[in-house]
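Hey,
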Amino acid sequence: MTKVKISGKRLIDRKVKSFDGKDLGKIKSITPEYVELKHGDKRYFVPKVHIKEHDKDLYVLLMEDEVKHKYEREDPPLSSEIQEAERTGEGYTSYHEVIPFMAKEPGLELKGEKTGDILKIPWEDVIHKHVRSVDNVDIGDVDRLGNEFIVVREGVANVHMYYIPKQYITNYDGSSIWIDVPSGLVSAKFERENEPTQEEIDMLLNEVPEEE
């Protein structure tokens, strides 16, 4: 079985711009709540929800003055600031998530079928890849990565979001990910409006098919 490990390390030291195209420095660290940027002697602690990618560049989707006013500091933002950012930082449809929303290092392992080699690829390469059920039905594209699951988005006008524990993943061929669940059960098992609770994740993990 091939194990494909996806790492977020390539984001460290990536340059980041403000929404108006101003240089905000480079990513120095990533936590479950925020991204730390350093520009000369200035430090910015920016909630993850504001960090997006467009045309292969990373942006904070705020104007430079707003970034400086809100997030230039020596200490991380408060939980209340993170929550406020999450309430207001949605709706950027032409941008996509590049920072895992739960973890610094997602450590996503995808099991293949051919060799025993361990393949390491940047985890962000999986964003927007197709996801297929065990009966080879396309159930949508990877939207985000979490610590314990991937988030799959299906549809445009009528959107369905599936939170799928990584243990259900059985194969990755560079363009598609396969999960060990038939298409008819995907919605019933994984569709949610919000992130699953730890209890829901544990319940799903108990139902993961045994490897033969």
